[in-house]
Amino acid sequence: MPRNMVWRATSAQEQLLKAALFRGETAIQAWENWQENADLKSLDEGSARLLPLLYKNLSRQGVQHALMTEFKQLYDRTWMKNQYAVYQLANLLKAFQSAGIEALLLKGMALTLFYYQDFGVRSMNDYDLVVKANQVPEALQILNEQGWEAEDENPLQKMSVVHASAFRNAKGQHLDLHWHIMHECCTPSANDLFWQNAIRKEIRGVPVWILNPAHQLLHVCVHGAKWDAIPPIRWVADAMAVLQVADNELSWKQLLAVAAEFRLAYPLRETLRYLSGTFNVPVPAEALDQLDSMPASGTEKFEFRYRNENYHQKLFGYLPVMWFDHLRRSVGQNLIVKSLGFIKYIREYWGLKSVWQMPLKGLEMSRRRFRKLLFSRN
pTM to 2 decimals? Predict the structure, then answer.
């Protein structure tokens, strides 16, 4: 696997991760190696997001350094911001509960509350909630009543082609409302599987659901192994948090089964091998062997590589990602049916009323992309 995959940390980022995650002399040595060449003023944002976690871990090791004061300020700021976000989230969940809407918590908030179990160590720019597809209209109405404004004109019109919709409120907070857990699993069987195996928790006395440990680890690994303008190296810390807390509750058999069912064995194999080889994460050898034995088509491998590159700078941009998502929604169909369905998929994604509008829209987008690529190379 090429080192330029952005989800794989650079040497400096690996030292930072080890300083933030390991214990004892190994953590202290990694910290000394990292800070010797670190410049906080030019630190990449992916690394900067790890500094509160670094502070907490170094404090446990008794490390004293001039930078610790600055790290503590970041930790305290993250703690306060997350506390307020939980307060807002609990109010929204109460409204959902009153309407009979079940909600499942994803990503940063679920990890912070139930795996890191510390409000100060993991920053987050938004929070993610999943509701069942048939309850989306009611959920949208509640969001609107509580001052959340959709970033798309009409989320309901795009439900068949996207897995979530983004919202913001007047206080500058962001929320993603999902009806599917992830891009790659947008079939009714996937939704049923995740919901049936979810775990009930509470936030400030309000019930909420989270993914079980096996599904949580799958989500962290697959979601983390994608290109992002901010290096997504935090997925390593997230995965280790899940593994440390879940321990014997994580079913490797279940993890492998769902990866095979939804054709996610390839990204899971690559990420788990990286965790095992670079960070000494105790991934069972039998699990890695089984992942190695699971076939991955050329399309799946190409999909993984393409999602790991900055496709915004490529000629076809996001279009191949749409094709991959469409393929995953149309399993069992022949190529002609898939191709015709993709035309409808693009029309709905672009929000067009007729297929006859598509050529003009496509030309307009191609012209903008060509100009952007041309100027970026000059």
Answer: 0.93
